[in-house]
C-alpha cells in the first residue's frame, strides 16, 4: 500500500456504479484515483484488499461502503460533496493505521453499529 497513492475501496456497488464514483471523484480533485472492490473479500484484511492485483468483482449489496485511502484529512469534505448523486450514498470511512489490519467484515460490522447508534441518537 503506497501512502502517496490515492485509492477508494468500494463495497456493494456494481462495476458501472464504482466507475461513476471513481470518475466523479477524479474530476473533482484532478488526480488519479485507484478503485478496488471489497466484494467477495469479507474475510480479507483491508491492507491486503488495497494491494491485491487479482481480478476485481463488483457485486451489489444492500450495504454500501466507500473507504478512502491516501487522502489528506482536509480533502475528505470535498470528496463527500463530489459523490455522484446518481449513485446510492454509502457509509463512508477512512482506512487508518488502527483499522488497516481489520478484516473487511469487522469494519463493515463496526460501521453498521455506528450507523445504528447514530440513528438511535437522532430519534431521541
State the domain count.
1
Radius of gyration: 14 Å
Order of SSEs: EHEHEHEH
Helix content percent band: 25-40%
Q: Write down the oligomeric state.
A: single chain
Alpha carbon gap, first and last residue: 41 Å
Order of strands in the sheet with most strands = 2-1-3-4
Largest sheet: 4 strands, mixed
> Which structural class matches the secondary elements?
alpha/beta
Per DSSP E runs of 2 or more residues, the count of β-strands stands at: 4
Mean pLDDT: 91
Helices, by number, come to: 4
Outline: globular
- In percent, how much strand structure appears in the residues? 5-15%
User: Uncertain regions: pLDDT < 50 for 5+ in a row?
Assistant: none
Summarize this entry quickly.
The chain is of the alpha/beta class and 124 residues long.
Q: Can you characterise this structure?
A:
This protein has 124 residues and is of the alpha/beta class. It has a 4-stranded mixed β-sheet with strand order 2-1-3-4, sandwiched between helices. It has one domain. The chain contains 4 helices and 4 strands. 39% of the residues lie in helices and 15% in strands.
Amino acid at each position: 500500500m503506497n501512502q502517496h497513492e490515492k485509492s477508494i475501496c468500494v463495497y456493494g456497488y456494481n462495476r458501472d456504479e464504482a466507475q461513476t464514483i471513481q470518475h466523479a471523484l477524479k474530476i473533482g480533485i484532478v488526480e488519479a484515483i485507484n478503485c478496488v472492490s471489497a466484494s467477495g473479500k469479507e474475510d480479507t484484511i483491508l491492507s491486503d484488499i488495497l494491494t491485491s492485483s487479482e481480478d476485481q468483482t463488483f457485486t451489489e449489496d444492500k450495504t454500501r461502503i466507500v473507504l478512502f485511502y491516501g487522502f489528506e484529512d482536509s480533502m475528505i469534505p470535498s470528496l463527500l460533496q463530489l459523490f455522484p448523486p446518481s449513485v446510492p450514498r454509502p457509509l463512508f470511512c477512512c482506512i487508518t493505521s488502527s483499522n488497516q489490519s481489520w478484516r473487511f467484515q469487522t469494519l463493515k460490522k463496526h460501521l453498521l453499529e455506528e450507523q445504528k447508534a447514530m440513528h438511535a441518537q437522532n430519534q431521541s
